[in-house]
Specification:
Its EC number is 1.5.1.5, 3.5.4.9. The protein is α/β, with parallel strands linked by helices and 296 residues long. The chain is built from ten helices and ten strands.
Length: 296
């Protein structure tokens, strides 16, 4: 059933992918084929699904993609050698090392080994630094960049708004805060980050014009935490037991959607909200990397 205040992530992602496809066509007309390589270590079921989804979208947009798979037992040195090989390949414009990695491999070491200009995930320290400095020439992490696009393309007024982010992770929380407080017409928000040690977290949430949940706690945001008319973005992905579901479990977000939706001014569904945007921004970053690498 359609919901009047729903932010449709699938529709907005489709719009962005259409724009990206046009840029791919323009590149190919100049003899440039955007290339994206996924690196997966081990056979984590969720990673296999996520990489498969990204490969499918790459193909739809005309981006050449390939997946390199190493065994779970691969050493950090072996993974670094593969990254170095991809760094040196001019046909590869974007490199994505799929998380999670096995425990014996340090993610920070691997992310730092990817060339910043091929770091389409936005995790290299150089790109993180550029984001913090407000330098537009770096790559932003795909999920927070996708959240910004959801807000902007849904007509949400960010400038001057009180934005509260639940979660301080390096993938969403911290970069999201950096994006929203940029000196820009599409930002300029007053940002508060809440986390597990925040006192009276409900009072912070109830002050928010824009509430972004990225804590990884199922249905953490309840109706009494949301100011009427607030924009609520649910980034969380949590697996909960459900005997009625196939496999005995299902995915839910960080927001109790059924309780919060009647109160919110705008709200993202989960699934169908932020998830499609993450992939759309990855493809956009890859095409931009190809443009920058070839002077196109």
């Amino acid at each position: 059933m359609p919901v009047a205040n729903l932010i449709d992530g699938r529709a907005i992602a489709s719009q962005i992918q259409g724009e990206t496809a046009q840029r791919v066509t323009a590149l190919k007309a100049r003899g440039v084929e955007p290339g994206l390589v996924f690196v997966r270590v081990g056979e984590d079921p969720a990673s296999r699904v996520y990489v498969g989804m990204k490969e499918k979208v790459s193909s739809q947009l005309g981006i050449r993609s390939e997946t390199k798979i190493l065994p779970e037992s691969a050493t950090e040195e072996q993974l670094l050698a593969l990254v170095a090989q991809l760094n040196a390949d001019s046909r590869v414009h974007g490199i994505l090392v799929q998380a999670p990695l096995p425990r014996h491999i340090r993610e920070t070491v691997i992310y730092s080994a990817v060339l910043p200009e091929k770091d389409v995930d936005g995790f290299h320290p150089v790109n993180v630094g550029k984001l913090m400095l407000g330098d537009p020439n770096g790559f932003w992490p795909c999920t927070p960049a996708g959240v910004l696009e959801l807000l902007v393309r849904s007509g949400v007024k960010i400038e001057g708004a009180e934005a509260v982010i639940l979660g301080r992770g390096n993938i969403v929380g911290k970069p999201m805060a950096a994006i929203l407080c940029q000196k820009s017409k599409q930002a300029n928000a007053t940002v508060t980050i809440c986390h597990s040690q925040t006192r009276d977290i409900k009072s912070h949430c109830r002050r928010a014009d824009i509430l972004i949940a990225a804590m990884g706690v199922a249905k953490f945001v309840t109706a009494d935490m949301v100011k009427p008319g607030a924009v609520v973005v649910d980034v969380g992905v949590n697996r909960v037991n459900d005997p009625a579901a196939k496999g005995g479990s299902r995915l839910v977000g960080d927001v109790d959607f059924e309780a919060v939706q009647p109160i919110a001014g705008k709200i993202t569904p989960n699934p169908g909200g932020v998830g499609p945007m993450t992939i759309a921004m990855l493809m956009q970053n890859t095409v931009r990397a190809a443009e920058l690498a070839t002077g196109s």
